[in-house]
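Per-residue structure
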Amino acid sequence: MKKFLLTLSMTALLLFTAGCSCPFSDKTADSKPQMNTAAASAAEVAPDFSYKELSSGKTMRLNDLKGKPVFINFWATWCPPCVGELPHIEKKYAEYKDKMHFVILSVDDNEQDPARFIQSKGYTFPAAYGDHQALGRAYGIDAIPASYIISADGHIIARIVGSMNESSLDAFLQKAF
């Protein structure tokens, strides 16, 4: 019995520390965020996509947001590192919302789970839901959390895979300016 509990505990610990696997891949997010700004060249146009705002139910498109930089964060309610960075995103949303757009996009299997979660936490950032299969292919997302900075004219400036703390999120958002 002792050996079984030890094995079970070690397995649970391993799964928790591995990060979150996206529904469109078997890869996991590293515990350290991996930023990639060199590959996100000015020539790389951000793929347009539609999404549903969870608070209003309104359908939007990424291209509707041109004119200001856009911060996109792909997350899920079942992903502990994703959920862990949401308070930092909320704080930075309050600070940057007049300077840039935020799209905090759930890749959950349904839109009800993230809508309930966001409401229960009282978050005010623009939470959204989209087709996680299409988004995963379009953006090459193989693990979450994953975040992108899109320039005001629609080009990918930077991307990062992995959870960010407040200071790393602030440094990431500064890449938009």
